[in-house]
Give the backbone structure.
Amino acid sequence: MILSTSDLECKIIAARKLRKYGFTGLVLSHSLYPDEAKIINNAGADKTYLTMSQAGEALAEHLLEEQKLRATHTA
């Protein structure tokens, strides 16, 4: 289950209700702030990703890969 809404309260309620009614599957969420991620996890999510920081890291990784590819093609 992925909690993708931007509303913090909705993610908290959804995580709590999923667990209350017996959902035992993986619950993933996103958050912009570390303090909110802790709240969502405490409500029942298994993992909450910090969307903007992890998106930035992924973008930087793509940039480095592209630079490597270009360097090998021009060498």
Observations:
- The longest helix spans residues 51-74.
- The CA atoms of residues 12 and 75 lie 52 Å apart.
